[in-house]
Amino acid sequence: MPGHEPYKGRLAIPYITPSGVVDIRFRALTPEQEPKYLGLVGSKTTMFNTQALFVADKYICVTEGEFDCIMMSVKTTHPTVGIPGANNWKPHYAKLLDDFETVIVLADGDAAGLEFGKKISRELGNVNIISMPDGEDVNSMMIKKGSTWIDERIEQCITTTG
Q: Rounded CA gap, 145 and 159, in Å?
């Protein structure tokens, strides 16, 4: 569409709610594309995949980024929401997650990912953090080790708190 030229060659990630698409973000497909994510002009960052809040039972997973959330939704059965970047956690998200017995944060294997997990843990008392290895995220670990690697770690969190 005219005016959308900066988004050409990027993966469109729709934010879908029961009322329809409320936002679209665009992810780079190659490391050369900068920045990694672009949003529509005037849009505000929000929690991704909020439908998971309504289907989750005792636990919910939280990823840093939409793409990791998509991988969790496609490759596992774990209800997962995504926060679009470590610095985009908003205090009111804690109210959405507080009723779950366990909130499992799948933190990227870098300083920002660790701080992301700690920040959520400070706001909620029901958090388990699964840190990815250095330089890795959910997506890269699924590619390298498969979804079973994630499933095993989540199962440990569920059985130790449930």
A: 22
SS3 35: coil
Task: Write out the residue range of the structural domain in which residue 98 sits.
Answer: 52-161
| Six token digits for residue 152 | 């095993």
Q: Number of folded domains in the chain?
A: 2
Q: Do the beta carbons of residue 62 and residue 105 sit within 8 Å?
A: yes
Q: What's 110's domain CATH number?
A: 3.40.1360.10
CA atoms of 99 and 147, how far apart (whole Å): 26
Do 56 and 28 fall within a single domain?
Answer: no
User: Could you tell me if 77 and 119 lie in one domain?
Assistant: yes
Residues 6+ apart with CB under 8 A from 26: 7, 10, 11, 12, 13, 37, 38, 39
CB 95 within 8 A of CB 85: no
Tokens for 111?
């300083």
**Residue-wise pLDDT tens digits, 21-58:** 888 999 998 888 888 888 888 888 889 999 999 999 99
Same-domain status, 113 and 156 = yes
Q: Are both 61 and 140 inside the same structural domain?
A: yes
H-assigned helices in the chain: 52-55, 66-75, 93-97, 111-123, 138-145, 147-161
Could you give the CA distance from residue 57 to residue 138 in angstroms, rounded to a whole number?
A: 22
SS3 107: strand
